[in-house]
């Protein structure tokens, strides 16, 4: 008998095929973390009865791997993952919406999404959130027609090597003291759209200079592995400590350099170019490794500055939500 159509995922028999489907559908998007998650999924799929036992006794396990598949001739050709996103079950996340290429254009994605939304509603969910690549017009169009609104997005950019004849622009910059971390946190919060903070608030512990973090950074610098620079552009009017901050992780061994730039909204369009010029000049004293950065998709001046210095967009993920 050849089974076809929509059904809940069976973790004992479907995980391997779901992992293969996701791997094929998002082959150009998966980073090391995503590839690792697929390997774990395949491993769980091979554990058969034990995986099924875990799904029955652990609600957390079910929340992590719940969802629906679409089957044709007993083969999984479509998937949607449904995950509880908070302790109270008010917010849910939809992920891994994928359909095999040969079966696209038949409305399967819409049916998978409809099943996911119905499931979340039945569990008392009030909001559902998903992410989609900015350039995926087909998927974005489907989600918009189903009532999803865009909260914002995060763009990943990469520069393979520093531009030649790089000159720094005049700019008052000073190193940050460890005790000034909270002002950096406040600056990052000010530069993050409120709707994005509704979903993923800026976390203070990302900036707080714990003893362990200071010791680790000092050790890595001592052994010649890497160095972290935290630089600030002071506010001259006294309304806040800083107008902009750059955090640079400069590598000396094999790897990549990374940086984050935070500019207060009142200074958008004025500080991004000189700040990046100074940051990139610092990296001239380090090995020629690629440079990566992440930026709010709404911060158009910093994106323009990145492009001016040769950064290329790797991907931009938009976050969308729907109220149930």
Tell me about this structure:
- The chain has 324 residues and is of the alpha+beta class.
- Helix content is 37%, strand content 29%.
- Strands 1-2-3-4-5-12-6-11-10-9-8-7 form a twelve-stranded mixed sheet, sandwiched between helices.
- β8 and β9 form a beta hairpin.
- α1 runs antiparallel to α2 and α3 crosses α4.
- The protein is elongated and about 65 Å long.
- It starts with a strand and ends with a strand.
- The mean pLDDT is 88.
- What is the gyration radius calculated from CA atoms? 23 Å
Low-confidence stretches: none
Secondary structure category: alpha+beta
- The pLDDT mean sits at 88
Strand arrangement, largest sheet? 1-2-3-4-5-12-6-11-10-9-8-7
Proportion in helices: 25-40%
- Main sheet? 12 strands, mixed
Beta-sheet strand percentage?
25-35%
Oligomer state equals single chain
* Total helical segments: 11
Terminal-residue CA separation: 37 Å
Q: What is the molecular shape?
A: elongated
Order of helices and strands: EHHHHEEEHEHEEHHHEEEHEHE
Number of strands: 12
Secondary-structure topology with pairs:
Elements: E1 5-8, H1 11-25, H2 32-46, H3 49-57, H4 59-65, E2 67-72, E3 75-84, E4 91-99, H5 108-122, E5 127-133, H6 137-145, E6 149-159, E7 174-175, H7 181-190, H8 194-199, H9 211-222, E8 226-234, E9 242-251, E10 257-263, H10 272-283, E11 291-296, H11 300-308, E12 312-323
Parallel strand pairs: 4-5, 10-11
Antiparallel strand pairs: 1-2, 2-3, 3-4, 5-12, 6-11, 6-12, 7-8, 8-9, 9-10
Helix pairs in contact: 1-2, 3-4
């Amino acid at each position: 008998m050849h089974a076809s159509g929509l059904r809940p995922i069976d973790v004992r028999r479907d995980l391997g095929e779901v992992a293969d489907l996701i791997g094929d559908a998002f082959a150009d998007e998966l980073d090391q973390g995503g590839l690792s998650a697929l390997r774990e999924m395949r491993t769980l799929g091979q554990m058969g009865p034990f995986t099924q036992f875990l799904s029955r006794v652990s609600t957390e396990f079910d929340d992590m791997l719940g969802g629906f598949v679409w089957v044709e001739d007993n083969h999984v050709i479509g998937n949607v993952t449904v995950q509880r996103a908070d302790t109270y079950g008010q917010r849910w996340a939809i992920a891994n919406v994928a359909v095999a290429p040969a079966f696209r254009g038949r409305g399967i994605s819409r049916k998978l999404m409809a099943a996911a939304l119905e499931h979340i509603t039945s569990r008392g969910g009030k909001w559902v959130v998903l992410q989609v690549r900015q350039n995926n017009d087909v998927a974005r169009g489907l989600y918009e027609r189903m009532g999803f609104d865009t909260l914002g997005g995060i763009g990943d950019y990469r520069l393979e090597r520093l531009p030649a004849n790089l000159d720094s622009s005049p700019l008052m910059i000073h190193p940050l003291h460890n005790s000034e971390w909270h002002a950096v946190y406040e600056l990052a919060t000010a530069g993050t759209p409120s709707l994005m903070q509704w979903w993923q608030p800026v976390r203070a512990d990302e900036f707080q200079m714990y003893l362990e973090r200071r010791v680790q950074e000092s050790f890595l610098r001592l052994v010649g592995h890497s160095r972290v620079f935290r630089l600030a552009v002071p506010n001259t009017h006294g309304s806040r400590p800083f107008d902009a901050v750059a955090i640079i992780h400069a590598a000396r061994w094999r790897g990549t350099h990374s940086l984050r730039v935070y500019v207060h909204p009142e200074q958008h369009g004025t500080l991004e170019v000189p700040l990046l010029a100074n940051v990139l000049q610092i990296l001239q004293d380090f090995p020629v490794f690629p440079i990566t950065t992440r930026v709010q998709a709404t911060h158009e001046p910093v994106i323009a500055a990145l492009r001016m210095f040769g950064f290329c967009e790797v991907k931009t993920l938009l976050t969308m939500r729907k109220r149930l």
